Amino acid sequence: MISESVLNVSDLTTRFNTQDGVVHAVNGVSFELRAGEFLGVVGESGSGKSVTMMSLLKLIPMPPGEIIDGVAIFGGEDLLQLSRDALRKVRGGQIGFIFQDPMTSLNPVLTIGKQLCEPLILHRDASKREAKARAIELLDLVDIPDAEQRMKSYPHELSGGMRQRVMIAMALACEPQVIIADEPTTALDVTIQAQIIETVRELREKLGTAVIWITHDLGVVAGLADRVVVMYGGEIVEQALVGPLYAQPAHPYTQGLLESVPRLDQKGQELASIPGQPPSLLAEPVGCSFRPRCPYAFDRCKTENPVLMPIGGPSDEHLVKCWWDVAGGKERYER
Questions:
Q1: Confidence class of residue 1 from pLDDT cuts 50, 70 and 90?
Q2: Which of 199, 243, 291, 314 stands the most exposed, by the fewest C-beta atoms within 10 Å?
Q3: Could you give the percent of the chain with pLDDT greater than 70?
Q4: How many CB atoms lie within 10 A of CB 140?
Q5: In angstroms, what CA-CA distances link 220 with 58, 93, 264, 273?
Q6: Handedness of CA 52, 55, 60, 65 (dihedral sign)
Q7: Helix/strand/coil (H/E/C) assignment for every residue in the chain
């Protein structure tokens, strides 16, 4: 049974006006997030993953950033049309955000306890005493030892892994419906990464919170996600349940990403790479943005930008944005 949608995004388009020109950072992105779902968002640096999610909560700097089109329905309202005060109630209260670098996201001059209590007082009208008790519970929940004593610590007194656990606790403070995690383990060593991922997995199972996990690590997504969105050049190029996507990737870019991941069953083989460079987002997209790097590109790809379509009929959840049927070896949508 398909669960109800908690977030529905349609045609999100974000630009940045810079000295060099207009950067077309996000180009008509549409997706949905279902209740309790773990959605993985993957793609190389500059593909638009983080800007897409930050645009939903207007966390991009404006100017130079500008959201020029799109709808993001959450709780029956369009996030992109909310006033600043209304959006402030959603941030942290109903949608939690875990940033990539906890050292720059936490306030260095405030204690951990102060920063954990603030959203509880702001969004839940908790008293200082209630907020403190809940903050200690949250630190226990994310496996920070000696939680009551840690409330008095400043961010620089904690390790990178501990700071990221604090960020997770802050995101969970008001029991949000959705948590957006922006590459939360990138700056951590492999052992701590595994601990943080396991913590998020357990919390999601315990609390039933929907999670959007932004990453370039396909291995993490394979073990965590229910569904995967693949982004390239500010667009979604493929979207599917995790099993079908890994078993039969339908977009050449997704194929390339998966072939570049080291595999234990292929020892001694040289890793594949995707030739060429990502597209310049200063240029208005014309045709398929992946065409210059694609081994299957043909004339149609130069002039027509493909649309995200189901590969097996209207009810199929496997969507791909490509004119070429990789499995069938033929043009996908006849003109």
A1: very low
A2: 314
A3: 94
A4: 14
A5: 27, 27, 15, 20
A6: positive
A7: CCCCEEEEEEEEEEEEEECCEEEEEEEEEEEEEECCCEEEEECCCCCCHHHHHHHHCCCCCCCCEEEEEEEEEECCEEHHHCCHHHHHHHECCCEEEECCCHHHHCCCCCCHHHHHHHHHHHHHCCCHHHHHHHHHHHHHHCCCCCHHHHCCCCHHHCCHHHHHHHHHHHHHCCCCCEEEEECCCCCCCHHHHHHHHHHHHHHHHHHCCEEEEEECCHHHHHHHCCEEEEEECCEEEEEEEHHHHHHCCCCHHHHHHHHCCCCHHHCCCCCCCCCCCCCCCCCCCCCCCCHHHCCCCCHHHHHCCCCCEEECECCCCCEECCCEECCCCEECCCC
Which residues, including other chains, have CB under 8 Å from residue 144's CB and lie 6 or more apart?
150, 162, 165, 166, 169
pTM for the model: 0.89
Whole-number percent of the chain with pLDDT over 90: 47
Per-residue pLDDT for 27 more than 90? yes
Q: What is the 3-state secondary structure (H, E, C) of 17-84?
A: EECCEEEEEEEEEEEEEECCCEEEEECCCCCCHHHHHHHHCCCCCCCCEEEEEEEEEECCEEHHHCCH
Per the structure block, which two tokens stand in for 45?
């640096």
Q: Enter the tokens of residue 149.
A: 């004593």
Whether the CB-CB separation of 43 and 239 falls below 8 Å is answered with: no
Give the angle 30-33-36 at the CA atoms, nearest 5°.
175
Q: How confident is the model at residue 267 (pLDDT cuts 50, 70, 90)?
A: low
